[in-house]
User: Fold these one by one.
Assistant:
Number 1:
Amino acid sequence: MTSRERVLTTIARREPDRVPYNLRPSHELLLQFRAHVGEGDFADHFGHDVRYVSLALPERPAHVPEDQWTPTPTPADIAATAVATARLHGRGLAVCGAYACGVFEQAKAWLGDEGALVAPFEDPAGLARTLDRITEWKASIYGAYAEAGVDIVWMGDDLGSQRSLVMSPEHYRQWYRPRHQELVEHIRWRGPSAQIAFHCCGHVTPLIPDLIEMGIDVLEAVQAEAMDIAQLKREFGRDISFWGGVGAQSILARTEPDEVMAGVRDALAIMAPGGGYIAAPCHTLTDEVPWASVIAFHEAVVRFGGYG
């Protein structure tokens, strides 16, 4: 199988030849890569199955307020991203659009954390206008990736802390689910074959049925410190795929290489059967993760990630 075939097979919740995997390194971790390995491409070196493409959107000028800066992709931007996607497809790789923060995260950026959470009670009409404006903007970005032909459109919102949701399920369903549904439908319209991955850090178990009902294909991050991955696989694994699940805090940053190997092996044993799992750390890895843990992660997914 090519990497692309492998990723699309597992998202369809069928078993490929082996579990696909990737890892997102921080800039500091890339410096470690160059120190230990030398020049080269991190993902190529470790045989990752997923690559990312980014729209070349302009940076916000200093004189423009943040809530007035909503750059939308042009046809030329989409065409350039389509070319980059096609090149990666030509190498047999799966392609994911770069992450653009979602409706709630953008509302927090514009209104502040507290402001976004109290606005439904203090200014519901104003919040509705703000969220609708954000949704229209995000639709243009997510839709552009779908139109460019990526395999996975990466949307989402950080809706969980390490112990609970940051808002009640009822609050989510009133204010954010309808807008997430609108984004999903827009992506399907712009790119019917695109798979949709929903990013969410922290505890999001109570909202997974909502994500499934909306048509989300993959839950990404799957923070093992915040959720029971065995419960997720048991209760939802027939209806949604998972991407992540290896604890960046609990496994990769805090343990020795043999313990990393064991942690990855255990995650694979839980999540891999029947397909529906892309192995990855549950977050971009920073320089608090020892280089030996990075090596151990990759060795473990190769050693323990086969089917049959």
Note: The chain is about 50% helix and 10% strand.
Number 2:
Amino acid sequence: MDRLIMALATGFYVGNIAKAPGTWGSLAAFLPWLLIKDLPLPAYLLVLLAVLIVGFFIAGSAEKIIDRPDAGCIVIDEILGMFITLTAVPQHPVALFLGFVLFRIFDIAKPFPVSWFDQKIHGGTGIMMDDVMAGLYALISLQFIWSIIF
């Protein structure tokens, strides 16, 4: 069971890449996103909810297995953050790239309340929720920028 938990938590071991696991996890999110991107919005949102709920348990369990709080190799949170960012994204390479960049900026800079979740909430909930918030910031920013520029 530990192997399955670690495989899911690390994005099938993408999170084990030594340099910048969060960035690699965010990039890896594009592959499963391709499978869900054309779902009707209600179904897409249900997938996000399922990933969030499973992520709470998987990230928390992986944290215990590794015995380190919010270990960098756990990237299921970045995958969900990218799924949120890419909700209703325009099907254009520039929009996809901009979504990736915006998510990474918000995930790294951690503006409030991203930082609050990162610092105050622990376990699987904290691991997932700071990236949920970063994903929401990136989603809103992407849609706003796209509507103005394009």
Note: The radius of gyration is 15 Å.
